[in-house]
């Protein structure tokens, strides 16, 4: 019996527009009402399901690619922090890069807001304006990003993850080589190769979900996981009940072994509901 359902967000649990719409929320609410746990397993520094449009549905969170784990009330359960000496060496080695430094209490950016927005080279001016507006709202709520942080200010925090975008391929290769030489301390597990998502070497979504399952008294064969990208591979490899939507990349599909429909057709939330209803002995209508 599946007692814990863990899913990536974009391209997986959320709809085509990266939203938890009424279809997604209704499915997740039904699964939680059955007594099962639903876990948001994401690269984002999510604090609760409410942050992602799930309202008052109690959801556990494995955020920042497994570096930060929170219970269904948003309370911090576990944080896997990067050694401060390792973090300092990384930032000193690449002084020209803007580091988005993720800690349990927020995000600390080593550049200005405008410089950080400019690093999103694939975003339009309108997209960047919307991002700035969203962050201003978060600042008012006390959860926004802090910009223009010095290295000393960053190192005062318990940093769990670095998000970095390189302005050119050459610098990207240099950073990749730097991380390869320090693979005993750091790992890069990006969703897509447009950025670096750097955390402690032993951190990934699979290990974090195993920790959370044990904390909740759930065995690993009672866990179902869903993912579509590079930062999902570890959890898709680890758990027997692993699924990838048809829009996933080929590596995620191979790691999962079982491919279901597209996230455009709500394949993941529908699969969760079908699983729960089948376990309850209810007739499932497609």
UniProtKB/TrEMBL annotation:
Signal peptide: none
Source organism superkingdom: Bacteria
GO cellular component, one term: cytosol
SUPFAM superfamilies per record: HAD-like
InterPro entries: HAD-like_sf, HAD-SF_hydro_IIB, HAD_sf
Alphabetized GO MF terms: magnesium ion binding; phosphatase activity
NCBIfam families recorded: HAD-SF-IIB
Protein name in UniProt: Haloacid dehalogenase
Organism: [Collinsella] massiliensis
Organism phylogeny: Bacteria, Bacillati, Actinomycetota, Coriobacteriia, Coriobacteriales
């Amino acid at each position: 019996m599946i007692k814990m359902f863990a899913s990536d967000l974009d391209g997986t649990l959320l709809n085509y527009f990266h939203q938890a719409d009424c279809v997604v929320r209704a499915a997740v609410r039904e699964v939680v009402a059955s007594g099962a746990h639903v876990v948001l397993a994401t690269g984002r520094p999510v604090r609760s399901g409410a942050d992602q449009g799930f309202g008052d549905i109690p959801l556990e969170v494995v955020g920042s690619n497994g570096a930060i784990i929170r219970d269904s009330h948003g309370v911090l359960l576990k944080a896997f922090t990067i050694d401060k000496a390792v973090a300092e060496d990384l930032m000193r080695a690449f002084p020209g890069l803007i580091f988005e430094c993720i800690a349990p209490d927020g995000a600390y950016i080593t550049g200005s807001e405008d410089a950080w927005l400019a690093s999103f080279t694939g975003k339009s001016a309108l997209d960047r304006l919307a991002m700035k507006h969203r962050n201003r709202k978060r600042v008012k709520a006390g959860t926004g990003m802090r910009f223009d942080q010095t290295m000393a200010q960053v190192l005062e925090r318990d940093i769990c993850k670095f998000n970095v975008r390189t302005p050119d391929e050459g610098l990207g290769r240099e950073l990749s080589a730097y991380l390869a030489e320090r693979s005993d301390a750091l790992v890069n597990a990006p969703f897509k190769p447009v950025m670096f998502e750097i955390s402690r070497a032993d951190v990934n979504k699979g290990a974090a979900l195993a920790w959370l399952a044990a904390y909740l008294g759930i065995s690993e064969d009672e866990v179902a996981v869903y993912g579509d990208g590079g930062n999902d591979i570890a959890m898709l490899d680890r758990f027997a009940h692993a699924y990838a939507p048809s829009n996933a990349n080929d590596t995620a599909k191979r790691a999962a072994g079982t491919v279901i429909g597209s996230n455009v057709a709500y394949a993941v939330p529908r699969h969760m509901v079908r699983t729960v209803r089948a376990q309850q002995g209810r007739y499932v209508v497609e």
